[in-house]
Amino acid sequence: MDAMPPTTEMERAYLEKDASYNGIFFVAVRTTGIFCRPACPARKPLPKNVEYFPTVGKALAAGYRPCKRCRPLALDDQPPWATELIAEVERDPTARITEGDLRSRGIDPTTVRRYFLRQYGMTFQAYTRSRRLAGAFSRIREGGALDDAVFESGYDSHSGFRDAFARTFGATPGAYRQSPDRECILLAWLRSPLGPLVAGATSAGVCLLEFTDRRILEAQFTTVRKLFAAPVVPGTNEHLELLREELAAYFAGTLRQFSVPLIYPGSPFQHRVWDQLLSIPYGETRSYEQLAAEIGAPRASRAVGHANSLNRIAILIPCHRVLNKNGGLCGYGGGLRRKQSLLHLEQSGDRKQ
Predict the structure, then answer these.
(1) Is the pTM of this model over 0.85?
(2) ∠110-113-114 over CA atoms, to 5°?
(3) Which residues are tagged catalytic?
């Protein structure tokens, strides 16, 4: 179980229903089996019956179900200050927001640091720095002047920019200008009713989609870096913007087929499995045995299951549509409750057609 020890500030925020802590932690009640946001309007239980969790995923994994009053799985689980900071960075990635700036706005820098580490795997300062460099990367690849990339990215000197660029992308800006076909994997964080997702895309299409609380997420970043021989940095492109729109429509029950291009390198066998997953119709399921038979390898159901577990593009390559031969949910990297929710969404939507 991954409950976290409560601090005095967490207990205060929960007892006072402080909405600014929504998304920072979640509160679970042992006697009811329900977990809530800190600002939940429900009557507070005895402190001895309360557990605290850092993410929705941890609370779900511990066996708690979401509260129907405060809806901790809903899309608005991000603290307002985090939404404002991210929007500000997107409007102007060159902006320098210091810890002093955060304090002047009444935002605790330590809270910001912890939130970004948990949700994005990096500190807020690392997020903004990577976002600036991602913009510079795009300008350089498009043939823009190096001087413009340096100063538009908020750097005061060529040497400081060159060192930061090389640390992030593994090569100097000049090397990228000479080889414009060098790739970069852009990362965007998306919100969903089942918790936050991180998506990665190259210029060719989406190559990664995972729930951010998955323990193997860092390993997935390492894998795509090696597969594409490319750095991974925050940013966006047309594929990620389309993915954002299509996921919203999917969770709203109005989209059954994704059109965003996918890119998923792997072994020939893995490709056969992943391609077959893409052929499972919306609202339907298959067993591992059926999947193995469909790819012409009826004795390879165990290998099919392993390839299924290595899928790096959740939801879009629908590994959640695979069940065991008795119809049980079996495993799912994002957690069985999410798998159940995805199947319920699709099967409900299919019946409405």
Answers:
(1) no
(2) 90
(3) 36, 319
